[in-house]
Amino acid sequence: MIIKDSITGDLDLVNRYINRYIKHDISAIAHIGRHLIDSGGKRIRPYLVITTSRMFDVPVDAYVKVAAAIEMYHSASLLHDDVVDNAKQRRGSPSANNIWGNKRSVLVGDFLLAASSSIIAGMKNDDLLGTFIRVLSLMAEGELIQLGLSRNTGLSQKDYYTIIKKKTAYLFSLSCESGAIMGRAPDTVRRTMRQFGLLLGIAFQLIDDNIDYVSSARVSGKGRGVDLKEGKITLPMITALSGADRKEKAVLGRALAGTTDKGSFADVYGIIEKYHGFEYTKRRAESFAHRAIGLLDGLPVSPEIEELRSFALSVVERKS
Q: How far apart are CA 280 and CA 235, in angstroms?
């Protein structure tokens, strides 16, 4: 995904704003915060805040603050997720909990959550604050639902979509709607931006779930099969489970339970490929991305609209 130079400048402002919070006297905040900043995150959510805010003539200082707050919350959620998942890597580097331990990671995540909430509250915009709090609650719900359904081979597509909407897509939705909220756009436009972000977030996560299986560590920045190791059942796996015979389902079940040897990944990959799990997931991602793009047709033509169209298309073609 290519981000234009004009937006890169604003992303630099976002990074500087975040640095104000992580340059802290408490060493854990400073070190873990710097680790997150230096780990090469894509800054997709700030990018969406910036692009959509420009559509509605939101002042730069306002959208930089909101973009920073959303990215800080996203970082907090990653810290907490890695503790829950006992993850060892994040973006191709050792995860924060692997370096500094679970306790410090959780507490720094709490700090970032409090800081992001403080920034949003300081905007003095009740609509923005209410939407932000609602999304935070939904993301926590998504993590709990996924945890409760971990390694459950009976997970339905409906449950899967509920999880990825709550864990991923609603934060995309907030990122896209925030500019419309700050720019006092009509309710119909706000709904359009909210839905655009939701559909884009679903497409993004679907591709992420494919990448976990199909991209090399060199390309994706993480090892293959992380979701499988953590017992997370994603759409490629659900597709395979729906078509597999009894023997194949047993192979998939043992892999998800973590009771097989290292060679099991190749077996699982082969079964998913046999039942077109990766192909189906890519098609679904493309469908959601095109639905998102279709929503933009009702909005006035602008450079930002064209940027969002291109970005939505690039989301489904990414390899990392």
A: 8
pLDDT in tens, 268-319: 999 999 999 999 999 999 999 999 999 999 899 999 999 999 999 999 999 8
Backbone angles phi, psi at 58, to 5 degrees: -75, 135
Cα(197)–Cα(306) distance, integer angstroms: 15
> What phi and psi, each to the nearest 5 degrees, are found at residue 119?
-60, -45
Alpha carbon distance 130, 208 (integer Å): 29
Q: Which two tokens stand for residue 217?
A: 């560590």
What architecture (CATH level 2) is domain 5-315? Answer: Orthogonal Bundle (1.10)
What pTM was computed for the model?
0.94
- Structure confidence at residue 220 (pLDDT): 45
What is the spatial distance between Cα 106 and Cα 173, in angstroms, rounded to a whole number?
A: 25
Token pair 């996924």: residue:
146
Is-contact 203 315, C-beta < 8 A? Answer: yes
pLDDT value for 249? 95
Helix or strand holding residue 242 (H, E): helix 235-243
- Strands, E assignment, 97-247: none
Q: What are the residue ranges spanned by the domains of the chain? A: 5-315
